[in-house]
Amino acid sequence: MSTSLRKRKITYTVMIVSDAPASGHRRIHVRTGALAVVGFVLFVALICYAVYTTITMFGARDRSGRQIEQIVQLKEANEQLLAENETLGNKVSTLEENLNQKLTQEHELLAAHEEAYIPKGFPMSGAAQIREETVQEDGEDEGGNAADTDDDEEDGQNETIEIVAKDDWKEVIFVAAPNTKVVATAPGTVKETRAAEGEISYVVIDHGNGYVTTYRNQGNPIVEEGSEVVKGVALFLVGEDNTETGYSIRKDDNYIDPMEMIEIKG
After folding, report:
1. Cβ-Cβ contacts under 8 Å for 216 (sequence gap 6 or more)
2. CA distances from 209 to 113, 119, 213, 237, 260 (A)
3. Distance of alpha carbon 264 from alpha carbon 256, whole angstroms
4. 103 in helix, strand or coil?
């Protein structure tokens, strides 16, 4: 055979046929090489898509894992914050309770302090009687000396000065035995004192809260003006010549009956 054998190229024919009667048909011849190229391109595209999908899925899974981990951490942090908030709430409640107790105690102490400064005590250190007598007219000084001196004289000498109760003061006259003491009926500050020969002496004590007490006696005060005194401190010493003591109480400059205030025990 003179003619050399040559490898025949294989081609494929693609026919496109229309359903319309008037239409014909078309033939497209596709060579094997072109088909292989197209197949290779499609294969590479499929591989790339698969790789991309895998990477995307792994990335999404990784992100999802991190998000789940973050959610767990946030839940733990939230639980911790809730626990801390509850602890702080308990502490605040405890502090409020302690504060309320402290305020209550302070109010009770203040009330007890104010109560202690109310002149409810008995003005004498021992037993004493209340003297009934006529009352004194207005116009005297704090000691009430204008009407305390007897104008009658016997043998050229004045009689002993007598304490006369002041009606407008609601004053009470106490008569006590010698060696008894006239005492403060509550703590306070000695506002005024007077000790004069031949006149009625007196001690005025300011107890605060509007309370002021006045003690009138024929003797000499044994406390000084401006000094702080406690309940029961001696103001006068009762002897043979000063057995009488006038006692009065003021509240906000209004006189009140001492017998309504005095707490007599025993």
Report:
1. 143, 144, 163, 171, 200, 201, 202, 245, 246, 247
2. 11, 11, 12, 28, 18
3. 17
4. helix
Q: Which residues does 233 contact at the CB level (< 8 Å), separation at least 6?
A: 183, 184, 223
Three-state SS for 113-162 is HHHHCCCCCCCECCCEEECCCCCECCCCCCCCCCCCCCCCEECCEECCCC
Query: Is the pTM for the entire model greater than 0.90?
Result: no
Beta carbons within 10 angstroms of residue 95's beta carbon: 10
CATH H-level, domain 128-147+161-260: superfamily? Glucose Permease (Domain IIA) (2.70.70.10)
User: Where are the domains positioned within the chain?
Assistant: 9-85, 128-147+161-260
Those residues with Cβ within 8 angstroms of residue 218's Cβ, 6 or more apart along the chain or in another chain: 160, 161, 163, 200, 201, 241, 242, 244
3-state SS assignment for residue 96: helix
pLDDT (tens place) for every residue of the chain, 266 residues total: 444 555 555 555 655 555 666 655 566 665 667 767 777 888 888 888 888 888 888 777 778 788 888 898 998 899 899 999 989 999 999 999 999 999 988 888 888 888 889 999 999 999 999 987 655 544 455 555 544 433 443 443 335 678 999 999 999 999 999 999 999 999 999 999 999 777 899 999 999 989 999 999 999 999 999 999 999 999 999 999 999 999 999 999 999 999 999 987 64
CB under 8 Å to 182, separation ≥6 — which residues? 123, 124, 125, 176, 215, 217, 234, 235, 236, 237, 238, 245
